Each structure stands twice: as C-alpha cells, then as structure tokens.
Amino acid sequence: MEWWAVIILFFVLLMVFVMIGFPVAFAFLAVNMILVIIFINFDSGMQTLVLSAFRSLGSFTLTPIPLFILMGEVLFHSGLVMKLLDVLSRWMGRIPSRLSILTMASGTMFAALSGSAVANAAMLGSSMVPEMQKRGYHLKMSVGPILGAGSLATIIPPSTTAILLGGLGGISVGDLLIGGILPGLLLATLMIVYFMVIGAFDSSLAPKYEVEKSSWKERIRGLIFDAFPLLGLIFLVVWLIFSGFATPTESAAIGALGALILPALYGKLNKDVIKKTMIGTIKVSGMILLILAASAGFSQLLAFTGATSGLVNAVLSLDTAPILSIIGMLLIVLILGTFIEPISILMITTPLFIPVVFALDFDLVWFGILVLICLGIGNITPPFGLLLFVIRGVLPSDVSMKEIYKSVMGVITVSLCGVIIIMVFPEIVTWLPSVGSE
C-alpha cells in the first residue's frame, strides 16, 4: 500500500471511532490494533505495540509530567495563587484597562504555577469576570485577557504540554521548557500593550473607577509574604533546569516538594486539599501517559509501513522554500486546534512532522515552541476551542457564544503576530537554551 494511503486509512478509521464516541486515546489504540493486524500479524503486531508503549512510558524524560501536575494542583486547590492576585492588584495603581492588565499579568504568572490552560482560564474566569462586569468592562476586555492568559500555559514552563511534545518528538525537554520563557513573555507583553492601547483610545470599553488605596507597608508585606514565595519557587525550578544543575525531573521533584511545603506553612494543607490534589494529579497524568502509549504505537506503524519516509521524501521533493513547509504544518495545527484538544493534536501530528522538520534541517526546539503557541491559539479559536467553553461556564447565561467568539478575535490576531515575529527571529527561542548549555 502507498504511504499516503496508509495515512488516509489511519485518519479515516480514527475519525470513525471518535465519531461513535470513543475517547481519543482508546480510538488510537483501537486503530493501532487494526492496522497491525492488516500490515503485520496479530501475534508479532501486538508484541510490537506493547514493547513500543513500554519503551515510551519507561522514558525518564516523562517523569516531570506527574510532578509538575502535582505542583499545579496543590497550589491551585490550596488557594495560594489567589494571594498573588491580591498582591498584583495592590501594586497595579490606576492604569488604562486596569482589570484587563491585572488579568493578563496574573494569568501569565498562574500559567507558570499551574501548567494547565484549563485550570488557568477557569480560575481567572471565576475570580475576575464578576468584578469586570461590576465595573462595566466590555466583553472584549474581560474574556479576551482571560483566554489570552490561558493560552500561554502551553509554552510557559513548567508546561506539561511541552514535556509531552519533547517525549513524543525526541526533543530535549529542558530546552523546550527554557525555550518557552521568552516567547511566553513576548506574547504576554504584546497582549498587555494591545489591551492598554484599545482601552486608552476607547475608555467605554474599560471604564475607570476608584481604586482602594493600599499603604506601602501593606504592599511590601504582601510582596514579601504572599508573592515572593510562589514566584521564588517557579524561579528555582526554572533556574535549576537552565543552569544544568538538575534535570527537568529533579527540578520537578523539588517544585512538587516546595508546592507541598508552602501550603503547609500557610496552614492551607488539609485533607480536602490533599484529596483533590491527588485525584486531579492521577486523572490528568493517567490520561496523558495513556495517550503517549497510543501515540508510540502509531509512530512504530508509520515507520514500519514506510509512511514516515514517504512523507519526508515527498516534502523534500517539493520545489518550494523549506519555510513554506513549516508554515503549512503550523496551519494544520491551527486548523486542527479549532475542533480537537491539544494533546490529541500532538498525538496525530508529532510522528509525522518531526521527521520532516529534522530532514529540512530546522531547529526542533524552535519548531516545537511554534507548535505549542499554535496549540494555545487553537485552544481559543472558534468554533470549538476548548477554553471558549470553559469561559462560557463562568459567564451569565444571556451571553451568546457568538459574542464570545467576537471578543477573542483580537487576542488571536495578536498571538499570530507573535508567531510571525518568532519565525522571523528564531533567536527569541534558541538564545536561552544555547546560553544554558554553555
């Protein structure tokens, strides 16, 4: 069978299983088993799938995933992240689009604390939307910052999506985590500037209001006791990876330990927090690792049938600039992101795209960060971006999905501008990993 026919057959079978109600991970496993029977045989094919799953899940590079998830879960359920929001609010002062900027700034920090786009959007939505509505903020100025900040969780370390991409694509997890710092800050800055500008030009979008004054003593006390411990934990985790003093796994273990110690010091670590933390960590980690096992079998099948080499040779034979192939792959990720959740997209695209990028001699970390950004954009892109439905759950019932779609278009445009900047200046991604490796 031709290589392109193998890929088409796989996707047709996958869509059939998904449409009849299979979870994506189980749909992948079912399709893998059907294809090994077709192209190999049942006994040796099943053995191949089991061995590939064992090798992928036994990889040391994946161990940061449950540890970083644990870190985010305990900080979220203990309520410590909300203390950070209060500190930022005291220091913000009276600036244009104050609540929008507060949401973006705190959301960027929350992304580093949680590593989860859904948790980030849900937390910001439940805490900020009521206050924004009370102050008369336009939907564009309330929903936009929440979804924009939520999309950053895919690239700002410690991103579990970045770790998963590294495991699937054979890319250095440490380099991916460090490489996401500057692009994440760039996107956050672009969005903050965007909301400040439109708020300054049209004050009706974000009406000014009297801000409760805080004394310098309260501000400094909040900074020292509420903000520094959390930010210091994130800085420690990132610095350990960046300096090479510890592996991502060791850094994640230190981060998880620190995330357990902090709530205990604040008196927030009780049975309810521990229960919710453990349940959330087991659920999310189990889902991710099962998906990874299924994707490993898919990669093996692509290699065995010659589909991978066929796709690489087809792309290399195109009489076009190599960068156009990169743009085409990113467009596919963006399109898939409008109706499929990010981890499933990684399962589908990584085994196909990474060999092509390697053959075209592009930097894999640079391409990986671009993919992660596009996954974040897909998370907020109509009609079925996952975070759109998360934010819908915290908005009043009279707000239509059409209004939510309109409110997020500016953030999507700004994010796409960020993608273009990073494509033109790849050093934004590659500089920090290169400095850390010296």
TrEMBL record:
Protein name as catalogued: TRAP transporter large permease
Give compartment(s). Answer: Cell inner membrane
Cell membrane is among the record's keywords? yes
| Membrane protein topology class | Multi-pass membrane protein
Question: What organism is this sequence from?
Answer: Planococcus salinus
Can you quote a single GO CC term? plasma membrane
Spans through the membrane: 6-39, 60-81, 101-125, 146-171, 177-201, 222-246, 252-269, 281-302, 314-336, 343-360, 366-395, 407-432
What are the alphabetically sorted keywords of the record? Cell inner membrane, Cell membrane, Membrane, Transmembrane, Transmembrane helix
Q: Which residues form the TRAP C4-dicarboxylate transport system permease DctM subunit domain?
A: 11-428
Its predominant location is membrane
A Pfam family the protein falls into: DctM
Single GO MF annotation: transmembrane transporter activity
Highest taxon, organism lineage: Bacteria
